Amino acid sequence: MASVTLSEAEKVYIVHGVQEDLRVDGRGCEDYRCVEVETDVVSNTSGSARVKLGHTDILVGVKAEMGTPKLEKPNEGYLEFFVDCSASATPEFEGRGGDDLGTEIANTLYRIFNNKSSVDLKTLCISPREHCWVLYVDVLLLECGGNLFDAISIAVKAALFNTR
Amino acid sequence: MAMEMRLPVARKPLSERLGRDTKKHLVVPGDTITTDTGFMRGHGTYMGEEKLIASVAGSVERVNKLICVKALKTRYIGEVGDIVVGRITEVQQKRWKVETNSRLDSVLLLSSMNLPGGELRRRSAEDELAMRGFLQEGDLISAEVQAVFSDGAVSLHTRSLKYGKLGQGVLVQVSPSLVKRQKTHFHDLPCGASVILGNNGFIWIYPTPEHKEEEAGGFIANLEVISRLRNCIISLVTQRMMLYDTSILYCYEASLPHQIKDILKPEIMEEIVMETRQRLLEQEG
């Protein structure tokens, strides 16, 4: 996130407000901003989604390819995540600055989508121990405006839903 | 903890909702303004192939024989006498560098600043060393434009009691072209908050400094009023309406039946601004 300089008095004001459960824009501490979800935005993918949450803009593309199942889970397919923090998202991501955040988000995504209730990996299996579908999920951060984890997980879910 | 999801909607063009009779002549870069060669070229135009062509996107202004194009989305261009709200970015030897959303950082000289202990004191070396004690990096100030240098940089002064460092409140950044030029830019709204409409597009909303004893009790009510005003200003800006005290006040009153956080939703924003627009038209004619 591009850092914003604030005066001391502004900081005191904001802290007072948060103590009364009132943010500067009138939301409570636990209220979300409006989310805009759009699917099927990228034509040459199997599924895609774009999510806008305030100033945060995420684009997710899913490509399905054939592969061999992992040895410890021969009856299931799997997902591969890659998160790209583009340099235009925020000045801190210039050059290689966004790589650390990208790997951290990718690792979190692996943990989130590892359980049975999000994606049923058995449906991705074609023939056990030989062939299975591998879903390559690419996440692109177009603009970084806060709350990345929520926006990215919504976008990935929408893109997987859109995958045919 | 409910979340609201919505699908993106194409933006409606503003013209079909405006219904104004005076149509401004809007141009985009490359548009021909006129083929008459008798006019003098002003800012934002250039001569090409015997025609006057616009180089910026904005409205055409004509003063006798001078044609210029006033850009709608620009950085702040300083003029002497303007009131601006700025943020200190640097503390230099005898001056402060102030960010005012213009092409170059504005300058606030130490000699242009009110010092405690009288106005006519000569600035000494101790004053220079104590500069950071008055204004630090990140502080907000309200000031007036004293002079404009030839490169466009603006020199500010705070030589009046109404200018100076700003205390608690909220800053809203809008485009400078949306702030209407008026006699005064310091407004005390009847809802309990005051607003400074800087000509550079920085708008400062703060609780009206009333009797000091009431501060603790009235704090919560003030916070809500200020958040509501901030959301109203943002909705006026999204609908490209001019900002002045009457329009902000009408918008605030139109938003009272809604919750503060709902004002930012597109449909409620449109509704409120439409009501504001109607009231303003009624008031004029």
TrEMBL record, chain A:
<dbReference type="InterPro" id="IPR050590">
    <property type="entry name" value="Exosome_comp_Rrp42_subfam"/>
</dbReference>
<dbReference type="InterPro" id="IPR020568">
    <property type="entry name" value="Ribosomal_Su5_D2-typ_SF"/>
</dbReference>
<keyword id="KW-0698">rRNA processing</keyword>
<comment type="similarity">
    <text>Belongs to the RNase PH family.</text>
</comment>
<feature type="domain" description="Exoribonuclease phosphorolytic">
    <location>
        <begin position="32"/>
        <end position="163"/>
    </location>
</feature>
<dbReference type="GO" id="GO:0000178">
    <property type="term" value="C:exosome (RNase complex)"/>
</dbReference>
<dbReference type="GO" id="GO:0005737">
    <property type="term" value="C:cytoplasm"/>
</dbReference>
<dbReference type="GO" id="GO:0006401">
    <property type="term" value="P:RNA catabolic process"/>
</dbReference>
<dbReference type="Pfam" id="PF01138">
    <property type="entry name" value="RNase_PH"/>
</dbReference>
<protein>
    <recommendedName>
        <fullName>Ribosomal RNA-processing protein 42</fullName>
    </recommendedName>
</protein>
<keyword id="KW-0963">Cytoplasm</keyword>
<dbReference type="GO" id="GO:0004527">
    <property type="term" value="F:exonuclease activity"/>
</dbReference>
<dbReference type="InterPro" id="IPR001247">
    <property type="entry name" value="ExoRNase_PH_dom1"/>
</dbReference>
<keyword id="KW-0269">Exonuclease</keyword>
<keyword id="KW-0378">Hydrolase</keyword>
<dbReference type="GO" id="GO:0005730">
    <property type="term" value="C:nucleolus"/>
</dbReference>
<dbReference type="GO" id="GO:0006364">
    <property type="term" value="P:rRNA processing"/>
</dbReference>
<keyword id="KW-0271">Exosome</keyword>
<keyword id="KW-0540">Nuclease</keyword>
<dbReference type="InterPro" id="IPR027408">
    <property type="entry name" value="PNPase/RNase_PH_dom_sf"/>
</dbReference>
